Amino acid sequence: MSTIAKQNYRGRYHFSPQRNWMNDPNGLVYFDGEYHLFFQHHPYGTTWGPMHWGHAVSKDLVRWEELDIALAPDENGMIFSGSVVVDWHNTAGFFGEGPGLVAIFTHNREAEGNSPKQAQSLAYSRDKGRTWTKYEGNPVLVHDASADFRDPKVFWHEATRRWVMVVACGQTIGLYHSPDLKAWTLGSEFGSGTGFHGGVWECPDLFPLAVDGDAARTKWVMLVSVGDDPAYPEGSRTQYFTGDFDGVTFTPDEDSHVVRWLDGGRDNYAGVTWSDVPAEDGRRLFIGWMSNWKYANLTPTEDFRGAMTVPRELGLERRNGIEILVQRPARELRRVRIPVLALANVGKREVEAALRALRLESYELIAEVPSSISFAFQMRTGGGQETVVGVDAVRGEVYVDRTKSGRHEFHEQFRGVHRAKLLAVGERLDLHVCVDRSSVEVFANGGQAVITDLIYPDSASAGISLAAEENDFRLISLAIYELAPPVAE
Ligand code: FRU
């Protein structure tokens, strides 16, 4: 029998709760100089349990300060996922002098012997999210037929001057609208016969993005997470659709009927975007829960369980004749970079020599390579462990191989190789990899091919090396930065 030494798997630049369980990001909103990150939280255990909303704030998306629990279960049930908006015009009447924050979330009531009853409810805060009052008229929206009715994401639709809610109803998305966040009308339903249906639909989001940054060509993006089903080794994952939205109906683009995944890895689920990011910033910022319902309750962390992806900037780019969702690490991460290595136009031997001396757990690696050549970086190496991040030029794919990445015995399907197709690649390919104590996130080809995977190597497995078969292989550039943000003040 072997003993397993306790390892520190808490990411240095990824948000995780101080203690106990976390799943979905909730209530992402920017208000008065702060990014809020609420999250599905079980404050008394390291596995899923009675759901509360935990809360953290950040001024820069990198250093997070965890605050008191925002919402706790009550007579209407547990507090499941949902969103927060700034009610700028006091439409709900909760604020004498607006604006203030309103949370729209799912109450999940489990009566013994019956299936759970889910309904949408409100809470509001007059003190920048520090304390919350639940609305006495809860719940504000119930569904007669569907047992699965949850995860409302609300936004202000300026063209129709009313609120819009997207909410998961079994295997479709309901699109409701409201003048005041309290009275909701069903406008349409999306998803029947479209996209992937191998699991329950959860955590939708709907938002506009300018195609190639051109505001005259704006499209709407619908995110839909799909729950784990034992029939699929991929577990829970997120699909997306592009299309048009008129305030009532989301009409997907023709080619959007083909299933499109947000991420080629296993560990980016229930992700949604920030509300109320100021127009002068203009970014659509996303964060996902870095786990998978297939093994989320079993991962080998000790006093906490669950982490978020890095915050990401989303974009829509037209490639190969279709609009593709691209993701890039939020630029704020650059502020905490400590330069380690910068090479340009280097051959295999020089790269090998430069990497040999490095010992790093938490870092970014950014490389530009000729797109015609297959190669790989072995990361977090040591004692027989390695996480391989590579480009397969023949198959036109980027991949992460975590078969030897470290601990995996907690679930038989954890080990594996995960791939994402590279589309419309030019002569050069860029590869941006974010590595931390228990994760790797790959953004390739301008953020078009993304792979997010958990890994559980020993802390001592901190080596990096290059694997390239061709001896005349050259990198156009290679930069490595340690990422070590100081803790929030
Ligand atoms: C998604 C999800 C949501 C639900 C929450 C419960 O991961 O299943 O649909 O609101 O988690 O914690």
Could you describe the 3D structure shown?
The protein has one helix spanning 348-356, and strands at 20-31, 34-42, 52-58, 65-71, 78-87, 100-109, 117-125, 133-134, 149-157, 162-169, 172-178, 185-190, 201-211, 214-226, 237-245, 250-252, 269-273, 284-289, 304-305, 312-319, 322-329, 337-347, 363-370, 375-382, 385-392, 397-401, 417-421, 428-436, 439-444, 449-454, 463-467, 474-483. With 489 residues, it is mainly β. The strands form seven sheets. Strands 22-32-23-28-29-30 form a six-stranded antiparallel beta sheet. Strands 4-3-2-1-19 form a five-stranded mixed beta sheet, with no helix packed on it. The chain has a five-stranded antiparallel beta sheet with strand order 27-26-25-24-31. The radius of gyration is 22 Å and the shape is globular. It starts with 19 loop residues before the first strand and ends in a 6-residue tail after the last strand. The structure holds beta-D-fructofuranose (FRU). The site of beta-D-fructofuranose (FRU) has 12 residues, from β1, β5, β9 and β13.
Q: What's this model, at a glance?
A:
The protein is about 0% helix and about 50% strand.
Per-chain topology:
Layout: E1 20-31, E2 34-42, E3 52-58, E4 65-71, E5 78-87, E6 100-109, E7 117-125, E8 133-134, E9 149-157, E10 162-169, E11 172-178, E12 185-190, E13 201-211, E14 214-226, E15 237-245, E16 250-252, E17 269-273, E18 284-289, E19 304-305, E20 312-319, E21 322-329, E22 337-347, H1 348-356, E23 363-370, E24 375-382, E25 385-392, E26 397-401, E27 417-421, E28 428-436, E29 439-444, E30 449-454, E31 463-467, E32 474-483
Bound molecules: beta-D-fructofuranose.
The site of beta-D-fructofuranose has 12 residues, from strand 1, strand 5, strand 9 and strand 13.
